[in-house]
Amino acid sequence: MTQDTAPNTIYLKDYTQPQYWIDSINLHFELGEDETRVVSEMEVRRNTELNGSRILELDGENLVLGSVLINEKALSDGEFSVTDESLWIPDVPDSFTLQIETFIKPQLNTSLEGLYKSSGNFCTQCEAQGFRKITYYLDRPDVMAKFTTTIVADKSKYPVLLSNGNPVDTNDLDDGKHSVTWEDPFKKPCYLFALVAGDLECIKDTFITMNKREIDCRIYVEAHNIDKCDHAMRSLKKSMRWDEETFGREYDLDIYMIVAVDDFNMGAMENKGLNVFNSKYVLARPDTATDTDFINIEAVIGHEYFHNWSGNRVTCRDWFQLTLKEGLTVFRDQQFTSDMNSASVKRIDDVNVLRTRQFAEDAGPMSHPIQPDSYVEINNFYTVTVYNKGAEIIRMIHTLLGKENFRQGMDIYFERHDGEAATTEDFINAMEDASDIDLTQFRRWYHQAGTPQLDVQSEYKADEKRLSLSVKQSSETKTNKPFHIPLSVSLIDSDGSELKSAAQIVDITEAEQVIEFEDVEDNTAVSILRNYSAPVKLNYALNNEQLAFLVANDSDEFNRWNCAQQLGLNIMMALIEDYHQKKTLNLDAFYISTLKQVLIDESLDKALAARILSLPSEDYMGQNLPVIDVDAIYQVREFCKKTLAFELMDDFVAVYKSCQDDEYTLTPQAMGQRSLKNICLSYMMCSETETARKTAIEMAQHQYKNASNMTDQISALRCLAHYTEQEGGQVLDDFYQQWAKDSLVIDKWFMVQATATGTNAFQSVQALLEHDAFDLNVPNRVRSLVGAFTQANAVEFHHMSGQGYQFLADIVIKLNTTNPQIAARLLLPLIQWKSYDVNRQLMMKAQLQRVSETPDLAKDVFEITAKGLAG
After folding, report:
1. What are the residues whose beta carbons fall under 8 Å from the beta carbon of 504, sequence distance 6 or more?
2. Distance between CA atoms of 795 and 694, rounded to whole angstroms?
3. End-to-end CA distance of the chain, in Å?
4. In 3D, which of 828, 472, 781, 428 has the Cα closest to residue 619?
5. CATH 1.10.390.10 for the 314-442 domain, yes or no
6. Residue 844 confidence (pLDDT) above 80
7. 181 touches 147 (CB < 8 A)
8. Where does the Peptidase M1 alanyl aminopeptidase C-terminal domain lie (predicted)?
9. How many CB atoms lie within 10 A of CB 461?
10. Helix, strand, or coil here: 516?
11. Of 262, 291, 345, 772, which has the fewest CB atoms closer than 10 Å, so is most exposed?
12. Catalytic annotation, pick one of 61, 127, 304, 618
């Protein structure tokens, strides 16, 4: 497919109900090594609300059609027609039974959509439009049917046969085969269908619901991974209890199953009662998984479980409503993780993702509101905008309504639309009905793209003790009307105490507004956008002394971190200017002393301290430059790290030693301690003085060799691999030999090397493509090497030779025919070409053009390249 044969664009304005409904479907699978036979029997009826065509059009891709029967009568070839993407049956009755036989080859399905094989096991991924690769069907989320599924397979090869719902029948058959029938009592769209068949083992547990029902909880994995499931099971049970206590939502089936597979395009999938997970978000032991892995597993397990209500019991009417389930459920999993761990650190991490990734998306050619108005390929809209910005918009509703009203709104929403395919408007209506708050203007967040900016100026009148804040909102999208923005603000007096009476949520609804505070003393600091109350860019010109004061004193922990980031950004932006003018770089002693106070403050939460000590990321710095200069950003950050290592070496060593673990635990406190310890080690490794460098290397080597957990081992490995050559090479070899049989750990090994810089960095990445452990058909492996290099190694990927751009285009072209979904996602860094200098722009566009001219370009890749080239 080329631009001359562009695929159709789908528009929200064109939505209509389907001409036909499907009330129930019986699926019969005969799983074979060379071919799988699928027989579907559907109860179909005309949609009486429409007076349209009597032609039934079903979706289907890559299928071999066997037979079609209506009311048990076989249709002849002249009574239906088949295209590459559909089955047409003219003049069907108003109500009838439709039986279709298809044949598919899951073992050849590298797209990992529909039914495919992973590590010898059958599994499915049907969201968004994978079901059409299994059988002909109305593959759209507003068609909801009851599913009954029978699976037949060789019992010795596939002893475990799973599908949605509850098991209702099992049989041993001839020729060593067996069958299991599953019945799901709840209507669902076909994207929630799931099937798994394989030689798997499971751990079992039970959960007693708030109404004293006993739920059978199971996690299925390959036998060699059975000892890595305990954390996932604990996370599941925590999620179930939390959703009952927080939102009153009880699980509705008798069994809840999770299956971990190695080959998966996404993180996990919430199929009703049978969640299929990327093994990365299930498997964990302290020696194989980092603290971040453990937190992510808990969050993703929670996310998919919470979908049982916000996505399954109430689903989305069409794919333009995707944020209805994803944004809402991300908000729910963020709240869950905050309650299970450090709320402030969780907020910092979530905002980091938003500001470094989503803001860039808002400013680029893929910019879209959380409810887009058109798409070519829906897989391209599983974006940080739909998910993360969508969650921020739900968070703002929570802020505006308050906890109790929000909970009541959720109750109304679930009760009103249970068993239905709903819209974002249905959700907003429920929130208005619960609170009597008019959200008319707030709805603009759903339909307007771009990141609003708040420009704030303060004026203090000493004679009146009056402090005024002038707030102006604007957007890079000039046609946007003013948003409704909840702005959290408070005051901190000169002694560092918060003036509780000043704390408030201000509704910013106009292009310009003034906030006034009475009886305010001079030198009172303003704490604004507390806990990041809205996904906006804030331009509030505080000087470095004011920022440092808030770093030390703000009662809002998010704002302490945020002010440290702003202070670091101010310092480094000035250094970048010096770098451009070829001046000698000098790091402000004031900044060094500010970080020193954070480092030695024993009263400060260690996880928060680690976040505050982290310099602004290269991505965040780049967003604050009119033209991203990757070389200047890299050199300035490295200079800052080296200077801080020199000036604070004794403090880093002392804090590092004080954070040694006596015994490994997975508590928030212990994770914070490891986080602070390892950021100290990373600074120490930057030292350029001989004695200090030798000390740092010895400490990193000792940590690597004696680590009791993967967090400490991989941190030491990264330090040695990134900052030493001989020692780094030795530990990389040792690490591979130690973990060669654990694919998830080897993903980390690839990632460490993909993010290294230096003379031979790019050549090392190229060589790793030929490594025995690398497989272009395994998404996790591609993400750990290619994705990490292109998205987390800016100075090497954007090398002035253009070699990084050609490297990425080569990979995308190879993946276009095997896994276009992964190919399209990898391509995203290239479409940001407008943010860079002219030479890089030309090279990036040339590679985009090259990709666009690839024969048989997949819809996924076509849409990204077309938007990228259009700018």
Report:
1. 488, 489, 490
2. 27
3. 21
4. 828
5. yes
6. yes
7. no
8. 545-869
9. 10
10. strand
11. 772
12. 304
Tokens 């004679």 label which residue? 463
Contact 652, 684 (CB under 8 A): yes
* Residues 6 or more apart whose Cβ sits within 8 Å of residue 453: 473, 474, 475, 476, 536, 537, 538, 539
Residue 53's pLDDT band (cuts 50, 70, 90): confident
Enter the tokens of residue 772. 């025995």
pLDDT of residue 478: 82
The Cα 69–Cα 450 span in angstroms is: 50
Q: Is residue 770 annotated as part of the catalytic site, yes or no?
A: no
Q: What is the DSSP string of 722-775?
A: HH-SHHHHHHHHHHHHHHTT-HHHHHHHHHHHHT--STTHHHHHHHHTTSTT--
E strand or H helix at 710, and its extent?
A: helix 710-723
Which residue is it, tokens 């991989």?
714
Q: Which amino acid is at 819?
A: N
* Average pLDDT, rounded, for the chain: 97
| Cα R_g (the chain), whole angstroms | 28
Q: SS3 of 172, please?
A: strand
Walk across the sheet containing 268-269 and list its strands.
Answer: 201-208, 214-221, 255-261, 274-278, 268-269
Counting residues of the chain whose pLDDT is more than 90, the rounded percentage is 98
Question: Does residue 3 have a pLDDT over 60?
Answer: no
Domain 10-199 and domain 452-534 have a common topology: yes
Give the Cα separation of 157 and 161 in Å (integer): 11
In CATH, what number does 452-534 get?
2.60.40.1840
Q: How far is 234 from 739, CA to CA, in rounded Å?
A: 26
Among 18, 42, 14, residue whose Cα is nearest residue 28: 42
Q: Give the tokens for residue 852.
A: 């666009």
Domain boundaries, the chain: 10-199, 314-442, 452-534, 557-870
Nearest alpha-carbon partner for 671 in 680, 661, 681? 661
Query: Crossing angle for the helix pair 403-417 and 230-247, nearest 10 degrees?
Result: 100
Pair 246, 207: CB distance under 8 Å: no
Which residue type, as a one-letter code, is found at position 239?
Answer: S
d(CA 697, CA 699): 5
Helix axes 606-613, 557-580, angle to 10 degrees: 20
Q: Is the pLDDT of residue 2 over 60?
A: no
Rounded distance, CA 361 to CA 422, Å?
27
Q: Take residue 846 and report the two structure tokens written for it.
A: 């040339």
Distance separating alpha carbons of residues 417 and 409, to the nearest angstrom: 12
Q: Tell whether the model's pLDDT for residue 51 goes beyond 90.
A: no
Phi and psi, residue 869, nearest 5°: -70, -35
- pLDDT at site 4: 52
Can you tell me the distance from the alpha carbon of 756 to that of 717, in angstroms, rounded to the nearest whole number?
Answer: 11
Among 1, 297, 25, 229, smallest CA distance to 134 is for: 25
Q: CA–CA separation, 343 vs 294, rounded Å? A: 16
Checking if the pLDDT of 52 tops 80, the result is: no
Residue with tokens 């290239």: 830
Confidence of residue 1 (pLDDT cuts 50, 70, 90): very low
What tokens does 152 get?
Answer: 């037949």
Is the pLDDT at 687 greater than 50? The verdict is yes
Mean pLDDT value across residues 328-332? 98
Q: Which two tokens stand for residue 571?
A: 């310092």
Distance, CA of 97 to CA of 95 (rounded, Å): 7
Tell me the three state secondary structure of residue 769.
coil
The stretch 740-746 carries a mean pLDDT of 98
Tell whether the model's pLDDT for residue 760 goes beyond 70: yes
What superfamily in CATH does domain 10-199 come from? tricorn interacting facor f3 domain (2.60.40.1730)
**pLDDT tens, position by position, 339-364:** 999 999 999 999 999 999 999 999 99
* 617-664 confidence digits (pLDDT tens): 999 999 999 999 999 999 999 999 999 999 999 999 999 999 998 899
User: Are 620 and 636 a contacting pair, CB within 8 Å?
Assistant: no
Q: Which CATH class is domain 557-870?
A: mainly alpha
CA dist., res. 297 & res. 310, Å (int) = 19
